[in-house]
Amino acid sequence: MSEAVIADSAPVAAGREGTPVATEEIVVLDYGGQYSQLIARRVRDCGVFSELLPHHVGLEEVAKRKPRGVILSGGPASVYAPGAPKLEQGLLELGVPVLGICYGMQLLVHDLGGRVEQAEVGEFGRSDLTVSEPGVLLAGMPREQTCWMSHRDTVFEPPPGFTALASSSASPVAAVENVERGIYGIQFHPEVVHTPYGQEILTRFLTEVCGCERTWSAASIVEEQIARIRKQVGDGRVICGLSGGVDSSVAALLVHRAVGDQLTCVFVDHGLMRKEEGEQVISAFRDTFKVPLVAVDAEQRFLERLNGVTEPEAKRKAIGAEFIRVFEEEATKLDGADYLVQGTLYSDVIESGGGTGAATIKSHHNVGGLPDDLQFELVEPLRALFKDEVRAVGAELGLPERLVWRQPFPGPGLAIRVVGGEATKERLDVLREADHILQEEIRKAGLYRELWQSFCVLPDIRTVGVQGDERTYGYVVVVRAVTSDDAMTADWARLPYDLLETIASRMINELREVNRVVLDITSKPPGTIEWE
Ligand code: XMP
Q1: Which of the residues are catalytic?
Q2: What is the mean pLDDT of residues 437-459?
Q3: Is the pTM of this model over 0.90?
Q4: 500 pLDDT exceeds 80?
Q5: For strand 115-131 and strand 163-167, is the pairing parallel, antiparallel, or unpaired?
Q6: pLDDT single digits (tens) 330-353
Q7: Where are the alpha helices (DSSP H) in 380-496?
Q8: Ligand 1 atom at minimum distance from 530 CA
Q9: What atom of ligand 1 comes closest to residue 316's alpha carbon?
Q10: Are 62 and 72 in contact (CB under 8 A)?
């Protein structure tokens, strides 16, 4: 299986709205490094709440959070480049420990009088690290270890008063510390899996240096959010659109735990879901969790709306508009709902806030969402959480494994996987059955969780085949399976040949309409994950 690709993060201040009042917090200042979000996630993995803020957010914003420590991320700049991001004035006088990673370390070393220079060659990828003096940061760790490097500028001498802790062949000074001043730096990336002792180093910084207690957990998130939702909603009525995905499911369950039957969920089945998915959602919410649920069977309406529509964006628009119409009809029936639950995640908050070099979320990601002008106040219980935390909270709340680990599924559903043609009931059914076989086999092979997405595409073509001495003229099913960390980039998954063979022969044997199966081996970029 290929390694997950980590895409650029977008450095933007997260609003305080919805941010938990964690007892302790680490601020990660983002200098534009590709792993910045990952640093914040790894800190949380250690049980400490963290926020990712842009490096230029201002001292006041940092101080306001009363952080137990500050981490400076990596970044693409050289400290010598004109306009290179600077260290926030006064940051080192805040009286909290600071850890600089990669560019963050170079910035500290440069500002404090050490020697940073451009080296002959950069150092990218795996490196052997030798720990010469463990100090506080690297105490208890092996003298020789591997680490992940990604830099061109190099630290040659630590600043006065600092101890050099480690080196690699291309980095004479790969880690430094000044325990009295509480300033630490590492040239390598502790947040990526290719640095085997990375998590341990981060943990040491958080516990030994910052004195954090590691109380951030799925259970504490649940408790905190329930209190927060109760405070916001009071005895008001709440409505939630369930999509079948993990975000809306977890958001709905949290709200239900908080305010019980003041919540009504609306599940619009547009007939474009995978096989049995609608039933699973209905059974989990209505039967297991006893959440008041309005399930609308709108398949016919959507099919009619899609009649004659072949262009991808036109399909998206038609589905999006119909979805809003159905949802609004149901919402009006529920007299007096004041609040609407949305499954906004922390990564959405980071990505949509503008700011330096922020990536805009593609407009199509909002299709199937709801317009801003609905007359509700928003309840966003996942606003401070990363996806893996949402899954952990889902498991904590008892959400079935199938829902907790469901792969992302586009709002317009199977309609945008019947490509180059109209999404008719007949084609959707063929695709649904093929997709069901794929899912079954992927799960059986134990690969479902490893893949970001696995699905089938049904192009609007037929090809000739021969089955049982007869000529056939049938559909082609495309198998698409990708690994990714966030869908911004993706790699095609190297599925085992035996598995591919089983999938292909099952599809052809079990589905009369299908006589050919092909595999998509395009990464993103240049391809996109979906075909439309
Ligand atoms: P692409 O195809 O742009 O997809 O590489 C990136 C991710 O977005 C999902 N996707 C959508 N999700 N509505 C959605 O809610 C859409 O219209 C839509 N189009 C693509 C896609 O499945 C992948 O995870």
Answers
A1: 102, 189, 191
A2: 98
A3: no
A4: yes
A5: antiparallel
A6: 988 987 899 999 999 998 888 764
A7: 387-396, 401-404, 425-444
A8: 2
A9: 17
A10: no
